[in-house]
Amino acid sequence: MLQGKTAVVTGGSRGIGRAIALAFAEQGAEVAIVATKCSEAAEAVIAELVAKGSNARLYACDVSDPEAVTRVMAQILTDYGHVDILVNNAGITRDNLLPGLGESDIDDVIDVNLKGTIRVTRAFIRAMAKQRSGVILNISSVVGLMGNSGQTNYAASKAGVIGFTKSVAKEYGRRNIRCNAIAPGYIATEMTAALGAEKSEEIAKQLPLGRLGRPEDVAALALFLASDAASYITGEVISVDGGMYI
Ligand code: NDP
Question: Does residue 244 belong to any structural domain of this protein?
Answer without folding.
Answer: no
